[in-house]
């Protein structure tokens, strides 16, 4: 689908972004294995989470839609899932595949997980390795790529040091460990989003966090209590609007009720380092997560370095940070971000290629990129989404700051995480 985005000088208004994608996936999975009925409000109704929902239904869980973004899930406990009679399709969603592989590895039945063309190219050896160490029978006949065949069975606990700071990997191991009896210890090389830990604790699981260690305590039998959750707005989706508001020549934009969990909100620290004018108002706690309304004002940004421990806390926001860098004064250096190469597409390559098409000066490095602002971008050409929602939305925000606008091909992929992105963008462009 072709998407034409025209330049805009003023961004203003008040908006609400859809529910957090990571928390929505986890709400569906954990409520399915809780003992009794859970209620989810504000669930992200985007392709990725609908894939997880479809799979939980295929596994015998009753999930009922009560109203827009409101669902009840009749959890059947840790032993209540049933073998599906077909392969389980994760679509474009890495989170679905990695978390569910962990869950299914300990279920007493056979499952096959597959996904779309992009997901079937993403590395799954990172979960196959540790899950196999726990005794899982999980195979890929395609060199660590999906489809994955899982012959579920009893697993044993372990102590495991993650080779990459990945929340999907740690969550996969945590889910696989729920039915083991002894202690599981996961050691993180750097902090990554902790939604799984928060939600497991909230559902009554005995989990201890000690410095870089996550300890699932020894238990005769573990069980999850059903829960009610209001999913906060997704900071990764809000980031596109924060960038649009900061880069505009004028205007004030209020984004209501966004999750600001600090294991996830490194983007806000980068905005501060770039001199962005942003205020966090009305701070609260919702669904076990800190939230705030974010007030964004047009700003004069300056370049900065983004590297080290902050990377896992803003990994999905790097494409939009690169857009901000084009319009910021001075150089922006992004380092230690090789993980970007194994997302929905190689996000370093995609940003570099499409920026170069637009005449933007950018240097590609193995683990990131370097961008010198302030660049005038003429636009008036067609660019590609690379079948990656975050690339498509980043290019849309860049288009607002060009002279002639940009045409983005393959924009239908935006519905992976943010189905009403285009409507919201039209609403704030003045
Ligand atoms: O756990 C999650 O919900 C996610 C973790 C991150 O992936 P990694 O765990 O591969 O870093 C992130 O990129 C993805 O969008 C969502
Ligand atoms: C990488 C992403 O998601 P996933 O890994 O779930 O496909 C993303 O949403 O940017």
TrEMBL record:
Keywords: Amino-acid biosynthesis, Aromatic amino acid biosynthesis, Cytoplasm, Transferase. It catalyses: 3-phosphoshikimate + phosphoenolpyruvate = 5-O-(1-carboxyvinyl)-3-phosphoshikimate + phosphate. It comes from the Bacteria. It is an enzyme of class 2 (transferase). SUPFAM superfamilies: EPT/RTPC-like (SSF55205). Its EC number is 2.5.1.19. This is 3-phosphoshikimate 1-carboxyvinyltransferase. Monomer. The active site is at residue 316. It holds the Pfam family EPSP_synthase. 3-phosphoshikimate binds at residues 21-22, 26, 166, 168, 316, 343. It is found in: Cytoplasm. Phosphoenolpyruvate binds at residues 21, 94, 122, 168, 347, 390. Belongs to the EPSP synthase family. Catalyzes the transfer of the enolpyruvyl moiety of phosphoenolpyruvate (PEP) to the 5-hydroxyl of shikimate-3-phosphate (S3P) to produce enolpyruvyl shikimate-3-phosphate and inorganic phosphate. The keyword Chloroplast does not apply. GO terms for cellular component: cytoplasm. Pathway: Metabolic intermediate biosynthesis; chorismate biosynthesis; chorismate from D-erythrose 4-phosphate and phosphoenolpyruvate: step 6/7.
């Amino acid at each position: 689908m072709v998407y034409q985005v025209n330049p805009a000088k003023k961004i203003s208004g008040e908006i609400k972004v859809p529910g957090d994608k990571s928390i929505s996936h986890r709400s569906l999975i954990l409520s399915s294995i809780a003992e009794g009925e859970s209620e989810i409000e504000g669930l992200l109704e985007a392709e990725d989470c609908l894939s997880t929902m479809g799979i939980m239904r295929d596994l015998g869980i009753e999930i009922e839609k009560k109203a827009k973004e409101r669902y009840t899930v009749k959890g059947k406990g840790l032993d209540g899932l049933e073998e599906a009679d077909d392969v389980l399709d994760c679509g474009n969603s890495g989170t679905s595949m990695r978390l569910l592989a962990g869950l299914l590895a300990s279920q007493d039945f056979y499952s096959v997980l597959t996904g779309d063309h992009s997901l079937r190219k993403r590395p799954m050896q990172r979960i196959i390795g540790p899950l196999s160490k726990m005794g899982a029978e999980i195979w890929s006949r395609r060199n660590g790529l999906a489809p994955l065949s899982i012959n579920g069975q009893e697993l044993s606990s372990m102590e495991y040091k993650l080779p990459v700071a990945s929340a999907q990997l740690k969550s996969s191991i945590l889910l696989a460990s729920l039915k083991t009896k002894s202690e599981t210890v996961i050691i993180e090389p750097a902090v990554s989003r902790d939604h799984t830990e928060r939600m497991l604790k909230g559902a009554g699981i005995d989990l201890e966090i000690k410095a870089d260690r996550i300890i699932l305590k020894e238990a005769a039998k573990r069980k999850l209590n059903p829960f009610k959750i209001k999913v906060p707005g997704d900071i990764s989706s809000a980031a596109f609007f924060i960038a649009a508001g900061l880069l505009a020549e004028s205007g004030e934009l209020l984004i209501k009720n966004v999750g600001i969990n600090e294991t996830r909100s490194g983007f806000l620290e980068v905005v501060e380092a770039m001199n962005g004018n942003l205020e966090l108002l009305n701070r609260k706690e919702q669904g076990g997560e800190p939230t705030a309304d974010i007030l964004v004002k047009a700003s004069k940004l300056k370049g900065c370095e983004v590297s080290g421990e902050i990377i896992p806390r803003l990994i999905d926001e790097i494409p939009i940070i690169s857009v901000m860098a084009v319009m910021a004064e001075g150089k922006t250096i992004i380092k230690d971000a090789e993980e970007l190469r194994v997302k929905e597409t190689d996000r370093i390559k995609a940003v570099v290629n499409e920026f170069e098409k637009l005449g933007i000066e950018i240097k590609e490095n193995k683990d990131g990129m370097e961008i010198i602002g302030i660049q005038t971008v003429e636009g008036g050409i067609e660019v590609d989404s690379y079948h990656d929602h975050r690339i498509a939305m980043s290019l849309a925000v860049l288009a607002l700051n060009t002279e002639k606008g940009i045409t983005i091909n393959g924009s239908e992929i935006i519905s992976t995480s943010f189905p009403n992105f285009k409507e919201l963008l039209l609403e704030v462009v003045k």
